[in-house]
Design a protein that fits this description.
With 228 residues, the protein is α/β, with parallel strands linked by helices. The chain has helices at residues 11-22, 39-45, 54-57, 93-96, 100-103, 109-116, 131-134, 156-169, 216-224; strands spanning 3-7, 26-30, 49-51, 62-65, 84-87, 121-124, 148-153, 172-175. It is 29% helix and 15% strand.
Length: 228
């Protein structure tokens, strides 16, 4: 089993860590406030989890980057060079400030992250599903109720390894192509959030039992209907 390092251990990062521990992976949790602030989560996750610095998390086999987009620039540029990084970033202007290159569509969120982390093997994933649904829709390999999650990346080998991680966590990966195409499951697209949410009230967070299966066919329809 791989060791998975979490740079950012909030809703998505913490949920990925729980799925990883349940699957038999070791995890190294980190955040901007220091390892001492993560001891409660570590105790909850058990012996396969430990807290560390972002440098320690970055030494894991696979790194999950789950911090606000506005803070990606605070990560040392060489920290994850040659590392497979699963990028969960989303662009929320009210939180991240206006970013002209994203507003005009000249780049994608993950291409921007890639430019700030040169040499990393970036694969976009885990960004288009609410953390409550991510933590409840996992199913064993081969289950007819299994859901798919989209990924995008420019390195084929990195995508295969991320797909293997997804499989171990309870999901199939749906390869949407290069990072340049990752906008198709960004914020505001039909593939963002809604396919996994059976609740139509618009409440946040969604009800705990509102998750629904997303097949490859359903996800493909949502991706194909995206407009830029």
């Amino acid at each position: 089993m791989a060791t998975i390092g979490l740079i950012g251990s909030g809703h998505i990062g913490g949920t990925v860590a729980r799925l990883a521990v349940d699957a038999g992976h070791d995890v190294v949790l980190s955040n901007s406030r220091g390892p001492e602030t993560l001891q409660g989560l570590v105790r909850e996750l058990g012996e396969r989890a430990r807290a560390g610095t972002i440098q320690e998390a970055a030494r894991a086999d696979i790194v999950v980057l789950s911090i606000p987009l506005k803070n990606v620039g605070d990560i040392p540029a060489d920290l994850v060079r040659d590392k497979i990084v699963i990028d969960t970033s989303n662009y929320y202007p009210h939180r991240d400030g206006q970013i002209a290159a994203l507003d005009d569509g000249s780049t994608t969120t993950s291409e921007l992250v890639q430019s700030r982390l040169p040499g990393s093997l970036l694969v976009k994933g885990f960004n288009n599903i609410n953390f409550l649904h991510l933590g409840s829709l996992q199913r064993p390999s081969g289950s007819p109720e299994r859901s798919v999650l989209p990924i995008a990346g420019d390195d084929a080998s990195a995508k295969r390894q991320v797909a293997d991680v997804f499989d171990s966590l309870g999901y199939d990966a749906y390869d949407t192509g290069p990072l340049a195409d990752s906008w198709r499951f960004d914020v505001g697209t039909p593939a963002y959030g809604a396919p996994y949410n059976a609740d139509t009230s618009g409440s946040y967070p969604p009800p705990p039992d509102s998750g629904r299966q997303v097949t490859a066919e359903r996800l493909r329809e949502a991706l194909d209907s995206a407009q830029r």
